Amino acid sequence: MALTDPVSVLSGVGPKRQAALASLGLNTIGDLLFYFPFRYADLQVKDLATAADQEKLTVKGIVVADPVVTRFGPRKNRLNVRLQIDNMVVMVTFFNQPWLKDKFSQGVEAAIYGKWDAKRKTMTGMKVLATQTADEPSLAGVYPANKNIRQKTIADLVKEAYAREGQQIPEIVPAGLRQRYKLLTDQQIIHGMHWPKSGQEAHAARRSAIFREFFLFECQIQALRLDNDATQNGLAIPFDNQQLRALISTLPFALTAAQKRVVNEICADMRSPHHMNRLLQGDVGSGKTIVAAIVMYAAVTARYQAALMVPTEVLAEQHYAKLTKTFADFPVQIALLTGSTPTKARRETLAGLASGAIDIVIGTHALIQKGVDFAALGLAIIDEQHRFGVQQRKIIQEKGLKPDLLAMTATPIPRTLAITTYGEMDVSTIDELPAGRQPITTTWVRRNQLSGAFKRIHAELAAGHQVFAITPLIAESEKIDLQNAEQLYADMQATFGQEATVALLHGQMKPDEKEAIMRAFDAGETRILVSTTVVEVGVDVPNATVMLIMDADRFGLAQLHQLRGRVGRGQAAAYCILVADPKNEMGVERMQTMVTTNDGFKLAEKDLELRGSGDIFGDKQSGLPEFRVADPVTDFATLQAAQQSAAALFQADQTLSAAEFAPLRAWLARQQQSLGSLD
Ligand code: ADP
Ligand code: MG
């Protein structure tokens, strides 16, 4: 018998139940023991002295006499239980549930929900919430269950698993750490989590369980990192420094110190045989695109290909146009590949990628479809990586030669959180904006103050600048989206039509329509662009100085910051106007936060604070790992301690050879096995 035994060794677990348990990720005895309640049934016990007649309530007491079943008809009977509650003995009657009798032997403590008869001092029992002998727990765990298996079944199986294995649970967290952080043993954690006698006991167990979960996660990350280092399984890309300098000298601006630093970090990775797996973070407008261009060119000088994958066609098109300009005087073949690339062009591009005739390709998801093959892909870059799933990152990383990977993001995961949860990635951060940027002035107005805000737009148009006007995307209804966008378009047309051309861009347009509209705006032919959120990511039109956002309270802070980042890219002062009538305090606080801070990292932290970690990262594929008991945001201090502990442990003993680490070593080996078997 061991923790690794399958759940089928437990009584009543046949193939069907085993499958049901598997659907919850419960395959072994150990899985069950660490499958903790997500809450405890709250037995809010009522003091009978204050209870009203016929009130439904929960009481708790000790059974003081053996229960009696009285039959008074073919299927009619009643069960009487005498319960001592405080210093009163109360008769509790259950109708037609004679089997409950077995629960109420003398001396058992019982929690019962029922109806109180104040005159007779009796109760009609409606539900037995818990019964236990005196030294059993008094909080009832509630387990996450699903339609295949009942919560009660899980609770029973956990009990049986503990009865079999509870006395021989190996200690995974090294004793030194347990001592240092005053942690419970695994056995104590399991007992305290499943059957706490009090809230404090549950809390203490949870505290240790959280550390344990983070610690094991961080140990995995350490192991991954060592593995990556050891195998030297990446490409060494011997790029030509001379040529890189030549490219940089043709840029219309000097790189910021931060841009230089991250280019060096990335280039050092590329040159080494170590497989690059790097996250480039930089606030909106910090100039990540040019960094991407430089390092892609580095790959090209070493005769490798480079690919840049972006989340939208508009953005792909724009990057393609920009990079074509950047490389105008250099012998670089660039191609664009999106879902709407015409068949003939697509065929040519695929052939060019396969033969190596194309050096750099910019594209959308189309880049990772089957049939896209590279002669020598050396570097893959993913822009706005938070828009892609981890899986997509993996696919592009596995193309051909196992290219070096650079993921870029402006959705700032607070630095510390990135390091602890993206531990397997190295992180480079552009922490300064190009010089001469004007800060963006953000104002928040209510809908009925809109005309005041329009003054600013008139002034900016008069100065020759351009304007974005955004309505939110409402996921549930494309129809309403369109209506909103069309309404705003009509309003803008009516107000500014005399002085500027207005265009409308929305998600239901055909890609070539969108492209044409975007191009006209880029060229300054259109001065006001009304849009749903398709312009949210990456779009770069430096002459645009106003970002007007309708119903701004419908956006998250990170998204608002992204939108705001579309302006303030040139030398002129820029304005972000938030139009919102927030319905709650949180909405008000979000608007105020936007008005008072321009720092993407601070905003991200605030967003986390206001909305909880589930929200900012969007869907579950955002890249932040999921934990069972722990939460990387609210338990951040513990996460950090666990990370430091794991790092120190591996630094001192890379192979975890000491005898005391044997259980940890075995656990890590098992994790790798189960990962391997998934493929
Ligand atoms: P993001 O990091 O949001 O992707 P971009 O790469 O789109 O930002 O850059 C924003 C703007 O700043 C672009 O117009 C770009 O040409 C410009 N830019 C980039 N680096 C510098 C620099 N060092 N000095 C001045 N302007 C720069
Ligand atoms: Mg960008």
TrEMBL record:
UniProt keyword annotation of DNA repair present: yes
CDD domains named among the record's database cross-references: DEXHc_RecG (cd17992), RecG_wedge_OBF (cd04488)
Domain Helicase ATP-binding per the UniProt entry, residue ranges: 269-430
Gene Ontology MF annotations: DNA helicase activity; hydrolase activity
UniProt-listed Enzyme Commission number(s): 5.6.2.4
InterPro entries reported for this sequence: ATP-dep_DNA_helicase_RecG, DEAD/DEAH_box_helicase_dom, Helicase_ATP-bd, Helicase_C-like, NA-bd_OB-fold, P-loop_NTPase, RecG/Mfd, RecG_dom3_C
Reactions listed under catalytic activity: Couples ATP hydrolysis with the unwinding of duplex DNA by translocating in the 3'-5' direction; ATP + H2O = ADP + phosphate + H(+)
Role noted for this protein: Plays a critical role in recombination and DNA repair. Helps process Holliday junction intermediates to mature products by catalyzing branch migration. Has replication fork regression activity, unwinds stalled or blocked replication forks to make a HJ that can be resolved. Has a DNA unwinding activity characteristic of a DNA helicase with 3'-5' polarity.
Family named by the database record: Belongs to the helicase family. RecG subfamily.
The protein, known as: ATP-dependent DNA helicase RecG
Source species of the chain: Lacticaseibacillus baoqingensis
Top-level taxonomy: Bacteria, Bacillati, Bacillota, Bacilli, Lactobacillales
